[in-house]
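Appendix B, example 12.
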Amino acid sequence: MLLEVIVALGLATGILLAFTVTIAQTTRRSNILFTRQQAMMAAEAALNEIRDGRPPSQAAFAQRFEGMRLETRTEPADGQWRRFTHVIVTVTAMANGNTPIRVRLDGYVKGVAP
């Protein structure tokens, strides 16, 4: 009887431990996905502002998107896009405090000097 109780408690503890680890991993992955989505939306907003002729400043971007860093790069386009400028927007954010998330979004914009 005592042995059955000890085995049952051991199994219950093992199941509870496995459940706790699963929940912790799911929460971590969910946070990474959420941060990636936020960074993608921030990069899209920055690219849309550039398309609109109002490139975002680092200060304005940092104020709107806390904890994210913006990098923009322009280069001349080639081929069928030669009349446009190739704009590359990179947003870096940290998920879970220590996992860097980098999102790169690029597009072709008319009227922006490379």
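Helices lie at 2-51, 58-64. The mean pLDDT is 90.
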